[in-house]
Amino acid sequence: MRRDDAIAMVGRSPPMRVKKTAMTGPLAGVRVIEAGEMVAAPYAAKLMADLGADVIKIERPQIGDRSRSRGPFPGGAAHPDKSGLFIYLNTNKRGITLDLESARGSKIFDRMIARADLLIHSCAPSEMGRIGLDFARIAAINPKLVMTSIAPFGLSGPHRDWRAEDITLWSAGGACYLNGARNHPELPPLKAYGYQAGYQGGAHAAAAAMGALFGVARGGAGQHVEISIQESVVAIIEMANTFWPYMRVVATRYGPKPVQPLDSVECKDGWIFLCCVEEHQWRQFVELMGNPEWAAEEIFNERFKRGQNWDALRPLVAEWVGQQTVQDLYQKAQARRVPFAPISSLGDLVNSEHLRARGFFVDVTHPVAGRFKYPGAPYQLSRTQWEIRRSAPLLGQHNQEVFAELGLMGEDLAALARDGVI
Amino acid sequence: MNKPPLTGIRVADFTWVWAGPYCTMQLAHMGADVIRVESQTRMCVSRLTLPWAGGKTGPNRSGYFNQYNQGKRSIALNLKLESAREAARRLASKCDVVINNFAAGVMDRLGLGYADLARIKPDIIGVSLTGYGDSGPLRDYVAYGPAQVPLSGMSALTGYRGWPPMHVGFSYGDPNAGTHAAFAIIAALYHRERTGEGQYLDMSQWESTMALMGEAMLDWTMNQHQPERDGSRDPSMAPHGVFRCRDMPEPIAGSAVDMWVAIAVAGDDEFARFSQAVGRAELARDDRFATLAARKKNEDELEAIVTQWTSQRLAADAAEILQNAGVTAAVCATGRDLDEDPHLNERGFFVEHDHLEIGRVRHAGIPFRMSETPLAIKSPAPLLGQHTDEVLRDLLGYSAGEIENLRAEGALK
Fold it and tell me: Is A339 at the interface with chain B, CB within 8 A?
């Protein structure tokens, strides 16, 4: 289905003789070890795993990844193998339990390092030395290994050991301050839904780790890649990181936005996001509204002026928009190449015909949690497949299999289990 | 000697605004030679957008453009003319990656569609970065980064309790698609390195934004549950939010700047440390607050107590006191706070270059580091068409006379 889509898409402008090789991911055969918790490191490793890499996820014996205790859960009943956050972020991985703080655990870890291409971890910077995550030591075991360390504030600097949760990183990176209600300075800066700092740290880590792996594939040495989640957020806050150095201006959440309309407005049957970044889009929208007289006012005739005067303009626009339905306005605007968008509910997305035609949502059967639709490929590659090959691991599910690959079997394994190493 | 890993990879960058440029900047950060194809006849929106260096407008003076195009080259080609399209095709044939975010069909009409490119250079990696992807019934719909937040479902989940859906405050769909595209492009280069095969990458901003909300989607597919908007609260922590502090010590342009601190208290032990740090040790023994369940139940009251303490302090002091006590907190940073952040500065995160038109201005640097192939931003963002002649001459083999003819014809503007 997915592959057919890719070929149908290419079919409009067919590439010459696409060789029908077996569709595997571009990272098939790449061996990755993940020692990560919550979102950032697991997401980075998921991006690799979903493109074919063989990812072994290490969790603490008994306890596992903290995300196992976060919901959502089917029916709302907490269960470590049923967390929606965990089963989404850990698809395509094999899971083992291993105590990296024990001497025997550490030896096993070194054997894994010796056979891996990439290690992704999010162990606290102050703990790294103690559990042997010292790059010089690791490079001596495997000089081709890429070691990727994801830390909230990076591996150096006065805040290196600061405690962090997603909300404090989204704030420390300057994103949180930007979000709130126009004209309501009394309302606090508002966090975006979910674990966005974690996802951004993970996505930047995946890109950088991929770059380092490419360097190794071209004959370079392994190396230590470091990602600061705070810096990953500072890097993406649009104009807010240049307003101060360029103009000595602090962007606020409640003041006028530079350009309008870029705002949610209520229709008869729901909300729509109005979006006129360029002048031709505004002109088309004005035409769609039937060229009302007020639209010709001088104070609205340019995008920055519309930004400054949005308090005056918004009610005029809102009155017209309030008489439309979301789908009708969305389609009419798009027919004029005006990039409006509906405010989708989760149900709207799962039922979207467009996303269905692209095969975005994929059904995944998890042996304990059950069978559900998951968000799928964030990109489609014409020749190499994004694919869910296995569901997220139960805690320690692949201990026997993975440790057997390392030559650990029978009584050895039983002893390690008895002593709580695995 | 130890060159960044993408050294020698050349990218023809036909993208504009933010998603594509953010993608190609990651490639430039890792050593790729990124050549932006631009034109005065249809200038990139980001060159026409605030903030302006020194408050003066001009295509080379936008902080938006200059932040997200560091380390790239720029050539000006007026693609309305066949001679310019020919130069663009020659450029593509010299590149490993060709990326665009035009509407569907535009690259085909320019003779730069993936099929054309693959004919010239079979192992090329063609990338289309669009709002809705390159297939499906809405493939011709247009999208901008800010619209991805509502479209992806994130707006419906973000907001104050009882208020309408909100945005996240910036065009989040753009840089996120850019980072995901950069990862996928390097994965495709990796595949090419191993097999010699190029391919076509179809990147939808919408889909890459939904990838950031997997747990919400699963809440729907598991439970048909659309979570209610609940401000900055979290079901597993309390207090968890952003709390008012004293204003910034000095006003900016005559206006007071409100400051806030983010605080997240995960368990009862951390709450005991928090109570101690704010001089209210008894709170940890108070039935209203002693357990997470109690704190969630009495969260309004709890937040009022937190605000009582934070509102008497500077945000930086509040964060410092709480961190020293083992409580998770950070300043809710403004652009100015980032610029002056002792931590980011000690790490050398910001970069300054001599820009030909605006001089030395600080920009955010590279959020990742590599030990053996140190990364550095090679150059400031290019002036519009700054490298037209050098690229035509040195890379594409045009003679001085041919370049003059192109210029006279209007192909190089």
Answer: yes
